[in-house]
Amino acid sequence: MSTKYIRNFCIIAHIDHGKSTLADRLLEETDTLSKKEMKAQVLDSMDLERERGITIKSHPIQMKYHHSDNQIYTFNLIDTPGHVDFSYEVSRSLAACEGVLLLVDAAQGVEAQTVSNTYLAVENNLAIIPVINKVDLESSRVAEVRDQIIDLVGCRPEEIIEISAKTGQGVDRIFNAVVDCIQPPNDKVNDPARALIFDSMYDNYRGVIPYIRVFDGVIKSGMTAEFFSHKDSYEITEVGHFILKHVPTKELRSGDVGYVIANIRDMDHIKPGDTMTVKQNKASKRLEGYKKIKPMVFSGLYPAESEDYDQLRSALDKLKLNDASLIYTPETSDSLGFGFRCGFLGLLHMEIIQERLEREFNLSLVTTTPNVQYQVELKDGELIAVDTPAKMPEGGKIIDILEPFVAGEIITPKEYIGGIMTLCQKKRGIYKTTHYLSSEKAQLHYEFPLSEIIFDFYDKLKSISRGYASFDYNFIDFRSGNLKKLDILIHGKPVDALSTICHAENAYSRGVALCSKLKELIPKQMFEVSIQASLGNRIISRATVKSIKKNVTAKCYGGDITRKRKLWEKQKKGKKRMKMIGKVEVPQEALLAVLQITDD
User: Fold this and answer.
1) From 59, 137, 159, 542, which residue has the greatest number of CB atoms within 10 Å?
2) What are phi and psi of 591, to 5 degrees?
3) Separation of alpha carbons 200 and 320, rounded Å
4) Inter-residue contact 454 to 404 (CB < 8 Å)
């Protein structure tokens, strides 16, 4: 097929604006799947996606569309996530496309992630087709949302398509818009073969399967695959397209989106953003990849059973193939043993990774308190990165601690502005500007320390605005801050998994709150357990878990009181010895106590 009949596009939107539902209608209209195969959110293949009602992974699929000019077009669609924590999935999908469907909820209007994803599409020079979804709802505000889209994209009113993905109303207009507005890929079938790896998955029987967009040349089975990131080569045994499942084909030509099977067993050999070529028609220059993603939140992942360490390593290797934004390095904790320090894009990303590890690989995990990466300036002039409080140098060696700042964008109905500004102030937000998208909707710009927004900021924002406000953020830089390391000592020994780095103003209140919380969560022992919060060498708070007292005189009936005193004395000595040599096991819920502490 000539490339002029191919269209590569993806759907971008804010979370819960109906991307997966629209994908379902497009598949139905093109008869890509039979009625038996069809189900709601058909591209959301993970149980986790279906349970939460969100898209976590981008999902490619090919459709055949019979146009009114009697020509059959090939549509390669990629359904993308909408949550800010998975924006890297969106950026990788955009690199494989020539255009996007920008979907906006008629009731909610333009949201923070709508704006962010639109900017990503503009940066990639993609054609944007604006679509208003859910026009059948009684609460829809089509005219107002149309004005917001015109303000965002700069299009004409007649270019905006109004649909209901649920009922199928207006969906047929999208097909004509895709054919007319999105450019076909360039026909470079005679050039040296080059394909961009935009995703991959691991199959126990067939090894690593890279997902590719072919930009130049032809790739077919029997050829030898080579990669620009390493010198190893592999014989291609199968190529194919995505039609819900892998469907083999003879070849992948310039403009095609598909997969390659070459029995690749080394998981490090497939990197999203790498360029693939073939030995028979080798390219000398690599394609432009993706900018390297920076993790925002760091946490330790440890196996509950120490013998599962190798299994956890293998699971992380396989998961990284499917999620290139996951970063991890081995680390050791005094209280938790051997594990990994992992970098995530946000708290939801961290939560999803943990659930996937537990479900897909049958692992039982212990996680440490999430924290951000700091830069520490030492007296010898060295600047070091610290992604866990345990690595923080001694106070005497430090000149300054720099914390990451992000530019935050909040879109909210105007009646909630006051409460949201109060929340931002509590989170040490620096106010920048307010821009009114319409008479009812405002866009607030703030700069925040990242450590203040990773825990409960999003939940509180939704609570204040009754679910109407949306939030997006981008990293800016590192700035100096009055920060302190807060240590927690249990039974006189510091527990590195409970240490946090916090602002000096909040250190005392956090220490008191944490000690009180741990007192409730740490089970009683046969000896008294002290819980202390310290800043450096100074104890700022203390709580005590009382000991369990066994009634050693229960069997003493009558007789002289000295018999009972002797038993009590013996018990006292035993408890003293136990206190000296006893160890306290900290339960997982106690390790997560830091998450439940607020600075209000």
Assistant:
1) 59
2) -65, -30
3) 9
4) no
Pull the structure tokens for residue 7: 């269209």
Q: Which of 474, 276, 341, 352 is nearest to 57 (CA)?
A: 352
Tell me the C-alpha distance between 62 and 511, whole Å.
Answer: 55
Q: pLDDT tens digits, residue range 419-458?
A: 999 999 988 889 989 888 777 788 899 999 888 887 778 7
Which residues of the chain have a pLDDT value below 50? 44-45, 50
* List of residues 6+ apart from 72 with CB closer than 8 A: 5, 64, 65, 66
CATH superfamily of this structure's domain 3-181:
P-loop containing nucleotide triphosphate hydrolases (3.40.50.300)
| pLDDT computed for residue 50 by the predictor | 47
Q: What is the pLDDT of residue 404?
A: 87
The C-alpha atoms of residue 335 and residue 332 are separated, in whole angstroms, by 9
Match 């450019």 to its residue by tokens. Answer: 183
Supply the DSSP symbol for 269: G
SS3 94: helix
CATH classification for the domain delimited by 297-370, as one of 1.10.8.60, 3.30.70.1130, 3.30.70.870, 3.10.20.120: 3.30.70.870
CATH code: domain 375-480 is: 3.30.70.240
Tell me the Ramachandran region of residue 5: left when phi exceeds 0, alpha when psi lies from -120 to 50, beta otherwise.
Answer: alpha
At the second CATH level, the architecture of 194-281 is Beta Barrel (2.40)
Token digits for 237?
Answer: 């045994």
**For the structural domain made of 484-596, what CATH number should be given?**
3.30.70.2570
Quick one: how far is CA 311 from the chain centroid?
Answer: 22
- CATH 3.30.70.240 positions along the chain are 375-480
